[in-house]
Design a protein that fits this description.
The chain is of the alpha/beta class. About 25% of the residues lie in helices and about 20% in strands. It is built from five helices and six strands. The strands form two sheets. A four-stranded mixed beta sheet has the order 4-5-3-6, with helices on one face. Helix 1 crosses helix 4. The longest helix has 18 residues.
Length: about 180
């Protein structure tokens, strides 16, 4: 499948949302600020901080670092994501069903009444020590390709890097990343 300019813009938009942790929202809290963008090809992008557990979406996409045999680190949003699904993410990783090699993906339907998204796509960006903007772009392209292939109308992307203990890429560095060459 050939990605169009529309898909490339979506991938670029997804990668630029890498920001900070995605804190869970309190029940009485105001909705998070949201910034909307119109693209030259008519694709609407919306960027907001929202936890992947509560995001109403057809497809929730998360970046996952390679599994650490000594134990994976889950903070805030990733911990909530794992716990709300009864430890599913931890179990998959510990059993070797999703190790997290670069480019590895796993698509699944969450357990009933666990989280809001209808489906989840995990995309591995590999070893934490080798994290780069190029790896995030790869994840963005994989995310767009799968969303298009699945025919979803609404996809959400949560890089969750901070929520796995990574500080390799600074938020400012991600926000200032140049557009990939065509």
């Amino acid at each position: 499948m050939r990605l169009t300019l529309k898909h490339e813009l979506l991938a670029l938009g997804l990668v630029f949302t890498l920001g900070a942790s995605w804190p869970a929202l309190a029940e009485n809290a105001k909705p998070p600020p949201e910034k909307k963008f119109e693209t030259p090809v008519g694709l609407a992008l919306s960027v907001k901080q929202s936890g992947p557990v509560t995001q109403t979406t057809d497809l929730q996409i998360l970046c996952v670092l390679k599994h650490e045999p000594a134990g994976d680190q889950y903070i805030e949003a990733m911990q909530d994501f794992n716990e709300k699904q009864g430890g599913l993410l931890s179990a998959l990783r510990e059993r070797g069903e999703f190790v997290g090699e670069l480019g590895e993906t796993l698509l699944y339907t969450p357990p009933p009444r666990s989280i809001t998204p209808k489906r989840v796509l995990l995309i591995s960006i590999g070893d934490a020590r080798e994290l780069s903007l190029d790896r995030l772009r790869l994840a963005g392209r994989s995310a767009v390709r799968e969303a298009v292939r699945l025919g979803v109308k609404h996809a959400s992307f949560a890089p969750t890097l901070r929520d796995q203990g990574s500080s390799v890429i600074d938020v400012g560095e991600g926000d200032a990343a140049p557009a990939p060459a065509k």
